[in-house]
Amino acid sequence: MKSATAIYHYDKYWAECYGTAPFLPMSRAEMDALGWDSCDIIIVTGDAYVDHPSFGMAIIGRLLEAQGFRVGIIAQPDWRSSQAFEALGRPNLFYGVAAGNMDSMINRYTADRKVRNDDAYTPGGIGGKRPDRCSLVYSQRCREAFGDVPIILGGIEASLRRIAHYDYWQNKVRRSILVDAHADMLVYGNAERAIVELAHRLARGESISEITDVRGTAFLRHDTPANWWEIDSTRIDRPGRIDAIVSPYVNKKDTEACASKQEQTEADPSNVLRFVPDAKKNRSRSVIRLPSFEKVRNDPVLYAHANRVLHLETNPGNARALVQAHGKQELWLNRPAVPLTTEEMDYVFGMPYARVPHPAYGDANIPAYEMIRFSVNIMRGCFGGCTFCSITEHEGRIIQSRSEESILEEVEKIRDSVPGFTGVVSDLGGPTANMYRLACKSKEIEAACRKPSCVFPGICPNLNTDHSSLTQLYRKARALPGIKKILIASGLRYDLAVEDPEYVKELVTHHVGGYLKIAPEHTERGPLTKMMKPGIGTYDRFKELFEKYSLEAGKEQYLIPYFIAAHPGTTDLDMVNLALWLKKYNFRADQVQAFYPSPMATATAMYHSKKNPLKKVTYSSEQVDIVKSKVQRKLHKALLRYHDPDNWPMIRDALKEMKLQHLIGSGPEQLVPAQQPKGYRAKSSRRKNTKEAHRKRVRKGKLLTQHTGLPPRQQR
User: Fold this and answer.
1) Is 283 exposed, middle or buried (0-12, 13-18, 19+ CB in 10 A)?
2) What does each C-alpha distance from 393 to 56, 103, 107, 313, 606 come to in angstroms?
3) CA separation for the pair 715, 713 (Å, rounded)
4) Residue 703 CB neighbour total at 10 angstroms
5) Is residue 271 scored above 60 in pLDDT?
6) For the structural domain made of 518-645, what CATH number should be given?
7) Positive or negative, the Cα torsion across 40, 213, 56, 348?
8) Distance between CA atoms of 299 and 286, rounded to whole angstroms?
9) 3-class secondary-structure state, position 466
10) Where are the beta strands (DSSP E) in 62-168?
11) If both were cysteines, with which of 136, 364, 519, 610 could 562 make a disulfide (CB 3.0 to 4.6 Å apart)?
12) Spatial contact of 617 and 178, defined as CB atoms under 8 Å apart
């Protein structure tokens, strides 16, 4: 993998003379106070502006400011007209448009497609402050405001929708968000490297339409350049004899270091090169043609095939460009950006963040900020490859870690400057709690590897699992003056943790606040293999260590396991077995998590196509059990809450239908009682009665209103 220009080595833009703003301006008055006549770049975001490195607009805005550009923020604008998008005037270089820290549809709707009433990224936690498919709407309003200004899409919504993707809410395959938004370019991933290069090149006078060589970007063009080799992967089953096969699934030279023998020898006659003898040597000039939008829209199997190819072309060390036709337009995805070095990560997180929300929000509570204001992000990326998760698609699987010095300095900043700090750091983590500085033992192997996970089906022998750097960081952080406690709240990869018992001891002895949340996700092999998660035996080994070290520390601490209902590959029997496991260990879930098909995820491709993209996809390849009906999804969720009497009638009916009547009864190895509790009323009727009683009290003038200063609806 070739090194890239460090993001701090660019010559600064002339506007650096204006210095650093206390907050990036959100109004003309703030611009006037800074002496600005215009903004060079305006970031439009669906989140409230919090000047903290856990918020995308703050990281990108402060990074561009450090390059010398004047950056303004338009946060959660009224999208019903273009007026709010004109508030800061015409940007000199471009609009940067992002939905925020979450995909706007996931932010707005539950896994059952019900509207959420709240939004953690909005002042007051109020829902409905951003439109559905936020990036599309914002982009269109920017175009209405100043039609000639380039528009660059970014953020997780753009990343996950960069190619034709299955949309759970409409139950259909939609075009790339770049096509629908009529934007000029899309940057995917965390995008610091790409956005800095784009800003400087636009500032030098290059046209956005001429910039086609930046890694980590997507754009539209009309044909493949003459000096590129095109690999045809538009079909799966091709009749007749095929010569000169080159597969985007497998490149033997690349996979010798770190891939299974089965994958190395797998023949795949679906992918034929416009053959050039030296094409394998020109990966940087090779592009894989995916099935067109029109084909994947109409053929779920081709959709699964395209999804597989995309996920196998995500390693920056060996990935090739991708192209996908959308009608007469060609969507071109350049190779992923080179990951940031430790020095660059320190640079990004060392910006002069105010670490609080913009003063325009006054005393309004922003729930997402309250969750992270005393936390520190120590790394990014994840090599776990869980098929239902979006981290790898967005941040990549190569871990990018900050230096110990940078992290400790941020802890001290929190201690000294963040209002309300009591000495407790709520988290030292990131996408995972314990992948800090973990990486392949060989850079050459890492650059050649095409496996989607370093820890499934087992931990790769080439992976370094030494947690000593993290253990040392914990010790130094909690030894800082004024620091009473360092908690770890990020998700823990317990299959990695058990490889280093010293780390587990350190974690359990000093950094658990009574409960530690981990995510086995399931107990049964069927769904676990489709999730790419370890078997439940690994959880048992971690539990033994957790309990051992808790006892030695004299602390009463508990593990809280999380499980997913209705994930692809899950049968009704799998859920019954999970429920029996939960009952055996007396786990009673208060809330349950149902599978949520997020755009571009491998599990979403399974959900849509009933195929398994973790293996070669053909029309006759493995079929995956899918839970789609409302009744079956409700049953799977009910089995996770086997202890709730409201769920017993449904579970009893299901057990009878499955010929598992022996599980009905009050015995220790039986799942649900044969009868409802005496005097039982279902929750639905209890709610109905409560509402009726409330209406009667209102009619009789007997309703007592709490003195909260809020309207009755908000009180309730």
Assistant:
1) middle
2) 16, 13, 18, 11, 16
3) 5
4) 12
5) no
6) 3.30.750.200
7) negative
8) 26
9) coil
10) 71-75, 94-98, 151-154, 165-167
11) 519
12) no
Instruction: Indicate the helix (H) or strand (E) that contains 425.
Output: strand 424-425
Phi and psi at 229, nearest 5°, equal -95, 130
* Separation of alpha carbons 2 and 266, rounded Å: 29
φ/ψ of 519, rounded to 5, equals: -130, 85
Question: First and final CA of the chain: distance in angstroms?
Answer: 57
Label residue 708 exposed, middle or buried (CB < 10 Å: 0-12, 13-18, 19+).
exposed
How high is the pLDDT of residue 684?
A: 61
Question: Residue 395 is encoded by which pair of tokens?
Answer: 């941040």
Residue ranges of domains in the chain: 14-212, 229-305, 374-511, 518-645, 684-715
At which residue do the structure tokens 């337009």 appear?
329
Distance of CA 572 to the CA centre of its chain: 28
Residue 565 DSSP SS3: strand
- Could you read off the pLDDT of 369-396 as tens digits, one per residue? 999 999 999 999 999 999 999 888 899 9
**CATH architecture of the domain formed by 374-511:** 2-Layer Sandwich (3.30)
- The SS3 of residue 561 is strand
pLDDT on residue 250: 42
14-212 and 518-645 have identical folds: no
Q: How many CB atoms lie within 10 A of CB 160?
A: 21
Instruction: Please say if the pLDDT value at position 500 is more than 70.
Output: yes
Residue 85: C-alpha distances to residues 48, 295, 310, 621 (Å): 15, 36, 34, 49
Evaluate the omega torsion of the peptide bond into residue 457 and state whether it is cis, within 30 degrees of 0: yes
* pTM: predicted TM-score of the whole model, two decimal places: 0.89
CA atoms within 13 A on the CB side of 676: 12
**Contacts of 369 by beta carbon, 8 Å cutoff, 6+ apart:** 48, 50, 52, 356, 357
Nearest to 151 by CA among 160, 140, 159: 140
Domain at 14-212: CATH code: 3.40.50.2300
Give the total residue count for the chain: 716
pLDDT in tens, 76-94: 999 999 999 999 999 999 9
Single-letter code of the amino acid located at 340 = L
